[in-house]
Design goal:
Shape of chain A: globular
Shape of chain B: globular
Number of helices of chain B: 0
Strand content of chain A: over 45%
Structural class of chain B: mainly beta
Largest sheet of chain A: 7 strands, mixed
Order of helices and strands of chain A: EEEEEEEEEEE
Strand content of chain B: over 45%
Number of strands of chain B: 12
Number of helices of chain A: 0
Largest interface: A-B, 25 and 23 residues
Largest sheet of chain B: 6 strands, mixed
Radius of gyration of chain A: 13 Å
Oligomer: heterodimer
Order of helices and strands of chain B: EEEEEEEEEEEE
Helix content of chain A: under 10%
Chain lengths: 116, 112
């Protein structure tokens, strides 16, 4: 199957700093990537959909100025958490959509963000 | 609007016993249905998916799921559970537009 990587796998930062998370599709071109947030013992919450070369589409309630998404190429999307606060601590997961048209998604291994 | 319900928050089974995890969905058209497994601190791994055709779908690790349109269900089954199957399981429904809606997950504990 297709492989999606995320970097870093874990990050600890101080409150007020910004953190960038990378999501890469390693062996296929991803026209669409998705960013999810997962709280402990909870389901995945879709934050935004990013399409290569265009602005991301954010879900209701997600602050676009706080969670900056860039999808500059068909293999890379980045999520930047700006001015991070302790409540932003979470597990962030990306997925990449293939071109099959059937909504098949390949998930990255996730990034654990801890804001002190 | 699409939605997914996983009625069982937590299930405990003995190793070697059979398993069934329930999933009910609400969707306005032909659904694309998925089951994922997540181990602690890890991302999601696709177990199986249903797009069309045969309603009994075989997946990896000995899992299967049956799509029942009349019951709006897509239950996951395994005839004999192994200790390594202990994990969080998510059912999801997706649209061609590309968004998946996930259920709240079922935590599976396997007793020795």
């Amino acid at each position: 199957g297709a492989v999606v990587s995320q970097h870093p796998s874990r990050v600890i930062c101080k409150s007020g700093t910004s953190v960038k998370i990378e999501c890469r599709s390693l062996d296929f071109q991803a026209t669409t990537m998705f960013w999810y947030r997962q709280f402990p013992k909870k389901s995945l919450m879709l934050m935004a959909t990013s399409n290569e070369g265009s602005k991301a589409t954010y879900e209701q309630g997600v602050e676009k100025d706080k969670f900056l998404i860039n999808h500059a190429s068909l293999t890379l999307s980045t999520l930047t958490v700006t001015s991070a606060h302790p409540e932003d601590s979470s597990f962030y997961i990306c997925s990449a959509g293939g071109s099959s048209g059937y909504n098949e998604q390949f998930f990255g291994p996730g990034t654990r963000l801890t804001v002190l | 609007a699409q939605s997914v319900t996983q009625p069982d928050i937590h299930i405990t089974v003995s190793e070697g016993a059979s398993l069934e995890l329930r999933c009910n969905y609400s969707y306005g058209a032909t659904p694309y249905l998925f089951w994922y497994v997540q181990s602690p601190g890890q991302g999601l791994q696709l177990l199986l998916k249903y797009f069309s055709g045969d309603t009994l779908v075989q997946g990896i690790k000995g899992f299967e799921a049956e799509f029942k349109r009349s019951q709006s269900s897509f239950n996951l089954r395994k005839p004999s559970v192994h200790w390594s199957d202990a994990a969080e399981y998510f059912c999801a429904v997706g649209a061609r537009a590309g968004k998946s809606t996930f259920g709240d997950g079922t935590t599976l504990t396997v007793k020795p």
